[in-house]
Amino acid sequence: AQKVTQAQTEISVVEKEDVTLDCVYETRDTTYYLFWYKQPPSGELVFLIRRNSFDEQNEISGRYSWNFQKSTSSFNFTITASQVVDSAVYFCALSEADWDTGFQKLVFGTGTRLLVSP
Amino acid sequence: DGGITQSPKYLFRKEGQNVTLSCEQNLNHDAMYWYRQDPGQGLRLIYYSQIVNDFQKGDIAEGYSVSREKKESFPLTVTSAQKNPTAFYLCASSIRAINNEQFFGPGTRLTVL
């Protein structure tokens, strides 16, 4: 079965530091999607990025960047010049195909709590 | 504004009672989902629905029930058969059920007294 591992339970940084959140996944599918979500203290999950397995190009969006490496089954997330508002729990997720129903569900990691102090 | 609404935000229930959590979306999405989140854990899928009048069990469906009579609505009932119902419940929707990003509601925190 598919699996997503976020080994870092909690990370604490000081504002303006760069921080990388690790995500390692396992899948037997050749086509799959990877996602990152942010969960602020309010509880609602906010979508950050979706990446398909055929696109290994790194992506940058403002202070956020993602490094997808198929060879190591990793999809790491870096925040540059962190800010207090970045404090949240971040989840990595992998799409998993149910070949009986054709449905693809998301398998979530356990999340990394990021604390950014002023 | 388009989005997903869940009500109530906090819910308290006595042991042995059924309770229904509301989820409404006005994004015109076909697929809807219910997840459960426990402290320190990721999200686990309870039920999902790909289209109206159809729904399927997820990984932890025991003790829960759903209905999908309208495209916009996907209520979740937590029954007395659910052994440990205290948790944070999140509803989500996506355009279709395949490979699309899911958009989440604000969640309902259920506490069983």
Question: How is this structure best described in words?
Answer:
The complex is a heterodimer of chains A (118) and B (113). With 118 residues, chain A is mainly beta. Helix content of chain A is 0%, strand content 56%. Chain A has strands at residues 3-5, 10-14, 19-21, 24-26, 33-39, 46-52, 59-61, 64-69, 74-79, 88-98, 103-108, 112-117. In chain A, β10 (88-98) and β11 (103-108) form a beta hairpin. The radius of gyration of chain A is 14 Å and the shape is globular. The N and C termini of chain A lie far apart (41 Å). Chain B is mostly beta strands. In chain B, a hairpin with a 6-residue loop joins β5 and β6. Chain B is globular and about 35 Å long. Chain A binds chain B through residues 4, 9, 33, 35, 37, 42-47, 50, 52, 91, 95, 101-106, 108-111, and chain B through 40-45, 48, 50, 56, 58, 88, 90, 92, 97-107, 109.
Query: For the report, how would you describe the main beta sheet of chain B?
Result: 7 strands, mixed
The shape of chain B, in one word, is: globular
Tally of DSSP helical segments of chain A: 0
Reading the helices and strands of chain B in chain order gives EEEEEEEEEEE
The radius of gyration over CA of chain A amounts to: 14 Å
Most extensive chain interface and residues per partner: A-B, 25 and 25 residues
Which radius of gyration of chain B do the C-alpha atoms yield? 13 Å
- The proportion of residues in beta strands of chain A is over 45%
Class by SSE composition of chain A:
mainly beta
Strand percentage of chain B lies at over 45%
Structural class of chain B: mainly beta
Helix content of chain A: under 10%
Distance between the termini of chain A: 41 Å
Q: Kindly report how far apart the N and C termini of chain B lie.
A: 35 Å
Q: Provide the succession of SSEs of chain A.
A: EEEEEEEEEEEE
Q: How many beta-strand segments of chain B? A: 11
Low-confidence spans of chain A: pLDDT under 50, at least 5 residues?
none
Give a count of the beta strands of chain A, DSSP E runs of length 2 or more: 12
Rounded mean pLDDT score of chain B: 92
Low-pLDDT parts of chain B are: none
